[in-house]
Amino acid sequence: MRYTIPLQENGRMILPSELRNLLKLKKGDRVFIDTQGDRIELTTPQRERRRAQEMFRKFVPAGQDRVDQLIADRRQDAKIDVVANSKKQDREMKL
What we know:
Strand content: 5-15%
Order of helices and strands: HEEHH
CATH architecture of the largest domain: Ribbon
Structural class: mainly alpha
């Protein structure tokens, strides 16, 4: 869709209600405006979040929960640290 929007004083623009409804915008919401050359793109934080998720999703195999894997890795690291510290304390006590 294309909209023609007049520029108000101080550079303000009023987005048509149809566009606000489409983007699910309400008073006080913030939007992102990106520029590329002489073009601008207006988007919402929710849309930017979805884009980032889609972009990174290709790096995570389907069905794999990265959070659970991260927690398991951290628990394993903690066990290794406990064993290493225990061995260090044993050596120090022998001195």
